[in-house]
Amino acid sequence: MTTLSTLPLPTHYRPDEVADIRLVNAGEIANQAAAYAKAHGVKPAAGDRVKRSLMMIDEQIDFCSPQGSLFVGGRSGTGAVDDARRLLEWAYINLGSITEMCASMDTHKIMQIFHPQFWSNEQGEHPAPFTMISVDEVEKGIWQVNPGVFREVEGADLANMRRFVEHYVRQLAATGKYALTIWPYHTLLGSVGHALLPSVQELCVWHSVARNTQTQYEIKGGNTLTENYSVLGPEVRTKHDGSALGQKNTKFIERLLAFDAVIIAGQAKSHCVAWTIDDLLNEIMAQDPTLAKKVYLLEDCTSPVVVPGVVDYTDEANAAFQRFADAGMHVVNTSMPLETWPDMPL
Length: 346
Description:
Among the domains are: about 1-110 and about 185-210 and about 290-305 and about 325-345, no CATH class; about 115-180, no CATH class. A 6-stranded parallel β-sheet has the order 7-2-1-8-9-12, with helices on both faces. Strands 3-5 form a two-stranded antiparallel ribbon. Helix 8 packs parallel to helix 9 (about 315-325). The relative contact order is 0.17. By secondary structure, it is α/β, with parallel strands linked by helices. The chain is about 30% helix and about 10% strand.
């Protein structure tokens, strides 16, 4: 069996500081990475015979730090921190086998359909975080569009917006997606919580310099009128009048499927990770089902949304991953040497 070479962990990495919120000295990390590459014979990614992409989904402070507004703790309560530690160590050790790193970034503003400010009841109260808004509640007017919001949507009026939101929740129900969930304000553009976890940012700088290649960033979630769990497309793509609300990220899909292997990790397993993989699988099935075998899911580097006593999406996340495995994708973990992963091109 061919054995892929591994590398030592860099001296700047501190496992007990993975979740720390701090400024990253990119210049210093870059200098260290250049010296490290020279000392260990790390080659530029452009020369890779086998092209592998590591897609890190929403490794942002709000999701990955216990101080974040929507920390993904999983049932353990420390899920995203433990996941990040495993992911970082695996990525540093396997740096020479990762051709490209891609980081998706959830990007929001206050007035969006999944935030409290978008909705109000007859008393003018906004729904609390983790409220599930059903088709029945929208149709009966229990939850209504906040009259102040429609002005933020070009060409909209209040009556039109009411027709739209009825259509929106019906579409979610018809396609089997999660009911509309009101989330805490999170990953707000310009906020500290929007930034990558600093330890992950260090990894991106390190890989870029050591392997002489650019990290790819995919911004998602800015549409006022739709959720966008998946980096590959919004949850609802048409408005009530048939006009376009959003579209799939065809360019990025093509980029991913051009790699020999696509390795996926990030947060949260039950939402942004699951729906990204689901969209990718749908595209694969439409093109060539055998392409599923090039996708690897790092299961010990992702956790589901769990808020004790409120919501627990663990079972839904596990069921999704089983469905992906049944379709031919590979569920793996960081304790397995890369060369032992099924169907991994070497």
